[in-house]
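Dear Dr. H.,

I hope your travels went smoothly. While you were away I took the liberty of generating a structure for the chain from your last submission, since the lab meeting agenda had it listed for discussion. I wanted you to have the full record in hand beforehand rather than looking at slides cold. The sequence, exactly as received, is reproduced here:
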Amino acid sequence: MKTITRTARRLAPLLLSVGLVMAGTALSTAKELLTINLVNEPATLDPHQQWNPDSYYVYRNIFDNMLTRDNAGEIMPQIATSWDQVSDTEIVFDLRDDVVFHDGEKLTAEDVVYTVERITNPDFASPQLGQFNKIIKAEAFGDYQVKLTTDGPYPALLAQLVKLSIVPEHVASTMSGEEFNAAPVGSGPYKFAKWDRGVEVVVEKNDAYWGDKGPFDTVAFKGVPDASTRMANLQAGTADLVVTLNADLAQQLEASGRGKVLNVNTERVAYFAMNSTLPPLDNVDLRRAIGYAIDREAIVEGLLGGFPKVVDQMLSPAHFGWKDGITGYAYDPEKAKEIISGLGDAAKAEMKLATSPVFDQRVVQAIQQMLTEVGLNASIETVDMATWLKDQQTSNDQAPMLTFSRWSCACQDPDGIMYPLLHSSSSWSRFADPEVDAMLDEARGELDLEKRAALYARINEIALEKAAILPLYQAAILYGASEQLEWQPTSNESMFLNRMGWSE
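The corresponding predicted structure, in token form, is as follows:
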């Protein structure tokens, strides 16, 4: 099976041209300090721990990944230059031989093997384990070749390797997780400089980087929870790029003439999760009533400016496996009331709706109001993002009853979103169904793309029928940027600093 290798080699001229274009961008007017306002400071800088946006925005620039995607979403080489699928369960990767970690040590196949073994070690307890646990063996052949073996065919492997950051064995193996988080060493275009907790994370340009150099000497990432404050910082010139504006603020920014709006429809799916393992949500009729109670069109059009797109499946059009024609719950509050009234006192139990400031609180409050209007007793419980993440990755009996969230795996493959949110083995899942588990496992190993897509379509239909989880909309991310910043946001929400430019 040589197709993958030949495809990778055909990409070489394109990569060279892309590199030249990006190098040209990087050679535009230099800027010494770029300041980026995130919603929160990172939960971690260890790439094998959380991959929430505020963490991913930062550490993706410190580390190189096995593979990457271009701005159009196509899988491209990064540490791996080419790959050969030698059997249904084995892929051999050739690696770059010119990559140096930030401490001066060369990156070799042993670092890739260590990385794979680290993230797939159950004792390490990576929240990303479910994305990589199909890999059962990593072997080095010389300094620059690695073979990965999977437990059965795994067609999503390349998509998942897009987010596998390579860590140095000689550093990470000598540190605790907290120590590596506090002083991460990678091989990416920017190297860690300092983390002033509660204030900023600072990274500096890696002048020894093997690829396109960053156009900024220093980049400071600051957590600014309030969106209005982020925009005010942009307009005042104390920030050059700010994330996660709402539609109202985006319109204000455009009208002000002091900055510009950059937006993209992403692979991130907003959803409403219900803990179906506990009463009263173990009653499928109650979960269906919640589906009828939420007016998704009103949320998208009335609160979010029409930027997102309502979806009826746990995928976005940016994912492989998206299927037109799947229909979810239409807004029908009277039907919801009728179902709830027939369930008696059980449906009136108080249920906490877990949220964090990183999410648009207008959406959370609107959902809570919609649930209240049909007779449910839902109250909002707000915690910081680190606590929210911890509360989500726990046992079913300890997990929140209700959760509004948005999920992106940065892989654009259904395995990256549907497996963690619907498979009973996942610490994120609040749903247990043997039929769905079996189909998710089957889809993971199906190499025929048409059959695989059909499996995910059927899983989505069953998930709707059983109200396992409620898809809401494909998220649109709105960034505010200085007029001088040159950058194209991508569907997988990567913020590659060395794909940016600056012009006066």
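Two observations you may find useful: Residues 267-475 form a domain with the Dipeptide-binding Protein; domain 3 fold (CATH 3.10.105.10). The CA atoms of residues 185 and 199 lie 21 Å apart.

With kind regards,
E. W.
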